Every structure is written in structure tokens, then in C-alpha cells.
Amino acid sequence: MPVFEMSDADAAGRIGELAVPRADATVETPALLPVINPHLRTIQPAEMAEMGAQILITNSYIFYGSDEYREAALEKGLHEVLDFPGPIMTDSGSFQLAEYGEIDVDTPEILRFQREIGSDIATPVDIPTEPEVARERAEAERDTTQDRLETAAAFDAGEMLVTAPVQGSTYPDLRERAGREARETGLDVFPIGAVVPLLNDYRYADVVDAVVGAKRGLGPAAPVHLFGAGHPMTFALAAAMGCDLFDSAAYALYARDGRYLTVRGTDHLEDLAYFPCSCPVCTEYAPSDLRNADDERTERLLAEHNLHVSFAEIRRIRQAIRAGNLLELVEARARGHPDLLDGYRALLDHADWLGTHDPVRKGTFFYLSAESARRPEVRRHHDRLDRLDPPDELLLAPRDADVGDAGASHDAVWTLAPAFGPVPPELARSSPLTAETPARLDAAARKAAISGVAKLVEAHPDTAVSVHPGDWPTSAFAALPPAVDVLDGDDR
Ligand code: GUN
Ligand code: ZN
Q1: pLDDT at residue 490 is higher than 80
Q2: Model pTM?
């Protein structure tokens, strides 16, 4: 039975089902795994389930090293100790390795421990290589991680799934190789590691390059976890790259600091006069109520809100994938913070890769910003212009232009559509060419359209192409190939 099956897709994102045989369960993805630290249970796992958690993640190394929890976990199992019936994924201690430099356990030992405490998805001891280390070091640590993945693949895990973390620091080609070799181990779930320092510094463009690198190597069929991505403002962008699982310690860590998460960023409880949210916490309380509560209660209520807002964003992303408007959601989120906009722009820089995933049938394309002109749908249309069959004399005109007699003196009139460029009548009613665009177009929409015209001309040198400018400014046509005739007043 395949571990991961996909149903819907949009951009490189997808709705999938991850089968977790040891828990006799399937998890719908994209999914958020709240992080449980057994020592600090701000919200109990059983309550998490009520709030929408299908699956949790905890750190097996904490159990391994804990006088309080080690024996209990070995005797009763993780599910009983945490009181959570659904699947539980475990990390290995690599996080401690990154934080403190050393841990006293190796991959076979911690995998055995994870199996013995009843983990459903276990993790070997990968090395989370920091950003910007020297390439030699990133390579050497990636090689060590790969050795451990191979050890993990040989481990007798029974029904337990085992992850294959993908490292490679900030070297996209190393990430790609790491992804490819991780996939070749035949392990089950593929976390992309060591992005936490990038996420903490809002380096979303670098996150995108690392993730897309890894995804290029992993291919589309692998279920992908983005290790440590817990801020809901990042989920849509990550989902659009094909990340299926996220884990959130952020809901609790931020709550401890009095921080209130939203899909647009982070607010401080101190600064809020109103709660812009309709979760149970925010409908029952005002910010002043939380400020006046005792610290423990404030933290608990903030954590609850933080989780609610995170699960809501996951549902919104699933719905956007269903409806085919995930990139519109990413675009909206990108407006929440300039660094996130940079991340979205970095994703569009990978349009070649994105275009290989983006499904053809979609919801209505909304042109919302200059970035929209770089979406994969536009690129795909440009790429197929060579397969169209234009007549000898073709007139292109913006949709609302009155072409008058010029229409009759050409063999056909095609629409000059914002961003897409030449659109023959037979395609005009099919998605994405039914795109909604603002009446007050930006230059990027016209520029992309003109580059489409150039592609058409190049692919069909025997066609004489004229353009009726409609209400487009003259400057829009400056980049047209010289062979294209722009009709002036006398011709119309
Ligand atoms: N948690 C956050 N980042 C990482 C990582 O790179 N590896 C592991 N195992 N856990 C993580
Ligand atoms: Zn709320």
C-alpha cells in the first residue's frame, strides 16, 4: 500500500492522505502537528484533538533522557502517557544536537527506543547543518546524514514509518542531491531540515530556495514535512511548494512571550486593543482581559488562540487547493510582510519547476499584483503559443477595443489579454484565460502580454501580426518585435 496518496493539487501544493499503519489511521494533508513537550503541557494532547489536531509530534530524546518519562513511555507507550489516540510522530534529538552540539545516542539506538515507546513515525539522527557554513562542511554533514538514513532504512521498523530528513544548508544543489538520495533509501516521510534559523530570521526567500532544491530531488510523490515551520503566516507559501506536514512549537513558544499569532504576522498582546479573530478565546475575551489575567492563564489562552488560528489556516489552505486558488492565497499572505513577499517572488523565480506541477484545470485566475504576471499559468500559456495555429494575417486587440474595419481586413482577431498575450477565440472561455484583471492594469500585465506576442511571432514567422492598441498606452508596445505593426489612428 502506498504511504501517501494525493487527490487534489494546485501550484506544487496538494491535498493528500498519509497512511500511518502503526496507528491504523490516515492523516489528511496539509496537516499541522502540534509539538508536545511532555514537561510543558500548556495544552493537553486530548484537548489538541478537540481543536483539530489529527497527529502530534514529540521529541523521543526528551523521553529517552527523562527520569520521569522514560520508564513510563517504555511501559505504557507514548499514546497512553500523552493521552492521545491518533498518530504520534517523534523526532530524534537532532534538535538538541543543533542546539548543544552533542547528544549521547546514535541512530539505531534512538530508532529502537522510538519503536519501543510506540512511535508511529520515527526519525533518525540527522545533522541539521546551519545556514552559510562552508560548503565542505555542508557536504560532509550531508554525507553523514545520508549514511544514517541508510542505517535507518536497514532498521527493522515493523509498521512504524521512518523519516529521511533532507539537509544541505543553504546550498540548493546539495539540497537537491540530498532529496534525491533520501528518496532512494525508500524511507517513508521526508522532512526538510535546518530551516528553523532561516524561518526565525524571516529569510523566506532562502527557505524557498532550500525547499525547492530539496523538492527537485525528492520528486512529486514524496510526502514532505517542513521541520519547525510553525508560524501560520508561512503555511500557504510552504504548502504551495508541496510541503505536506508542518510542526508547530510556535503556538506555545510565542504564547510564553505574550505574542499573538495571525496569518499576517505576530502581534504583542501589549499592543492589541482588539482581537481580529473569531476563535473561542477571541470571542470570549478582550486583550485587556488577557493582560489582567495571571501569567499562566494568559499563556494558556494565547496558546489556544495561536493553535486555533494555525488550524484555521490549514483548513483554508486545503480549501484553496480544492478550489484551485492557492496562489491567490499565497499572494494575499505575501502582502502581510515584505520578507514573505520576497519568498513568493523567490518561488516565482522557480517558475520552470512550479510549471511542471501546476495542474491545468483551475479556478478563476485572479490577477492581483505584478507577481501574478509571473505565475506558472502565464508561463504555460506562453509555452504553448507555438502549438497554436494563427492565420496569415492576425490582428490582436485588448478585449474591449473597438477594432472597427480593422477586423475585416485581417483573417482573424485574437484577444490581447493582460499577462497572457495572444488568446484565440476558441481558448478565451477556458481557464486560466478567463482571468479576472483589474481595469487599471499595471505595466507588468501589459509587459507579460507583449512578451507573449513576441513568442507568437517567433514561433510563427509566416503570420503577419498587427496590434490594435485599444486603450493601452503607446509605451506598452515599445518591446514588440519590429515585424509587428501597431495600428495607428489612420488604420482604425
Ligand atoms: N527540528 C527542526 N529542524 C530539525 C532538523 O533539521 N532535524 C530534526 N531531526 N529535527 C528538526
Ligand atoms: Zn483567536
Answers
A1: no
A2: 0.95
